[in-house]
């Protein structure tokens, strides 16, 4: 259904916007930034808004991923060389990170100053992806070839051209409810399951635009203000597809405008659809 789908702006809550901007600028490499006292907007080199940081000094950090909400946002690098360059930069600054080879992609995992999870990854070509007999995509978690990636590193000069928001991964209350909502209402496809613990879905045959898991201790949203993700954006270029999804999601819409609407999923995450 979704032939022309991209992810856009993710809104993150942070406790100190100036401290966060320093991290996203000096460690990840954003240079196109609009900053005011309480908010910062981070753009790709091509001018696409990828992340908005909103300050809430009262927000609590979320050690150990206690509650339903953000697991990580995922920035997609255009090639292996640019990811290797970023890894070299992270190592030079002694940034704590994890890594994994997921067969369809190679990824490293870091956290911003508030503990918001960030995946930095590159995709392998779609022609190399494998599928089960039932059509599910084959993904795994194997050791990352850090040495091979590091060997490809060039001189770091901030984020590379072509950086995009690749996918979103959240902790959810109930996988069955999430699957029903994203499949039956929003019309996304199940790509694979990780037992009964995680679910991966997408549009346009991608390995996953959305990851969902039940790994948190408390299957609820916190009642107090916490850091994390407030909202993420899905851009749908095709007007007919946009209208179809809006009609199906009508009862779930919490806000709307002429060419956008916001829905809330069963785990109380806000999703903005934009027809652009």
Automatic annotation (TrEMBL):
<dbReference type="Pfam" id="PF00903">
    <property type="entry name" value="Glyoxalase"/>
</dbReference>
<feature type="domain" description="VOC">
    <location>
        <begin position="6"/>
        <end position="123"/>
    </location>
</feature>
<dbReference type="InterPro" id="IPR029068">
    <property type="entry name" value="Glyas_Bleomycin-R_OHBP_Dase"/>
</dbReference>
<dbReference type="InterPro" id="IPR004360">
    <property type="entry name" value="Glyas_Fos-R_dOase_dom"/>
</dbReference>
<dbReference type="InterPro" id="IPR037523">
    <property type="entry name" value="VOC_core"/>
</dbReference>
<protein>
    <submittedName>
        <fullName>VOC family protein</fullName>
    </submittedName>
</protein>
